[in-house]
Design the sequence.
């Protein structure tokens, strides 16, 4: 069987995708995490591979299968995700779909914390690095297209716009993650693509379809940019 050179709209391109949650250890048996299945990020990685790209997927702990055709780098914490992302550059396109824990415990206990007469412990937290903003603000080595997500329960478009500017992203995929939408962990997504040019409202689609449509949209933008 002959190996075929990749073909498709992203042939010859490197696409970097983050996906899943991060786990921030409290002690050897406990962690802080976000509610994320990895389904949307993994679907984007699969679609990019289908489009002929070389794909690096940096993923937090998830229970779903690796997408076909992607090189998967497994990490647990936000600090590890940031290091893996920077190590994977250069890339033509970077899509940040991971639900990164905003905070981590200031100190990780080496041994299991025990219940005691003192009552519940207080968790002191410290802020994690913003991986998307770090890459969006890179001078040399910045991917041509840097895309983030905005997971919001309120003021979706306004908050998405603020993230577009703050993180120097080329696009923000804004989605409503209120519990009643069933987006977190569910099969479907309703997204709005925010750019400097305005807002595109996409219909409710499967996460696989959002992945394919986003990849087609990115390939067209990359092509247009020359
Ligand atoms: N993100 C990141 N690193 C972080 C936090 C977020 O790379 N430490 C990325 C996410 O992958 C996503 C985008 O930034 O692409 C927006 O994430 P979101 O949680 O919606 O925004 P935050 O900036 O963390 O703000 P907040 O949670 O307060 O709304
Ligand atoms: Ca956040």
Sequence:
């Amino acid at each position: 069987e002959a190996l075929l050179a990749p073909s498709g709209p992203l042939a010859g391109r490197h696409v970097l995708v983050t996906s899943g949650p991060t786990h921030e250890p409290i002690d050897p048996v406990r962690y802080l995490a976000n509610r994320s299945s990895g389904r949307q990020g993994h679907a984007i990685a699969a679609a990019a591979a289908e489009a002929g790209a070389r794909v690096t997927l940096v993923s937090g702990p998830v229970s779903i299968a690796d997408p076909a055709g992607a090189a998967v780098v497994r990490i647990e914490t936000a600090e590890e995700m940031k290091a893996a992302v920077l190590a994977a550059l250069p890339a033509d396109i970077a899509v940040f779909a991971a639900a990164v824990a905003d905070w981590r415990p200031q100190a990780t206990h080496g041994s299991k914390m025990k219940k005691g007469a003192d009552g519940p412990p207080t968790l002191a937290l410290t802020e994690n690095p913003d991986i998307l903003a770090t890459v969006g603000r890179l001078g040399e080595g910045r991917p041509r297209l840097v895309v983030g997500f905005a997971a919001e329960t309120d003021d979706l478009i306004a908050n998405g716009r603020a993230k577009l500017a703050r993180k120097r992203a080329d696009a923000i995929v804004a989605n409503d993650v209120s519990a009643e939408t069933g987006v977190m962990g569910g099969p479907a997504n309703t997204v709005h693509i925010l750019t400097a040019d305005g807002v595109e409202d996409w219909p409710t689609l499967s996460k696989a379809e959002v992945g394919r449509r986003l990849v087609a949209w990115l390939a067209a933008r990359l092509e247009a940019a020359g």
Observations:
- The longest strand covers residues 145-152.
- The CA atoms of residues 95 and 147 lie 5 Å apart.
- The chain has five helices and 14 strands.
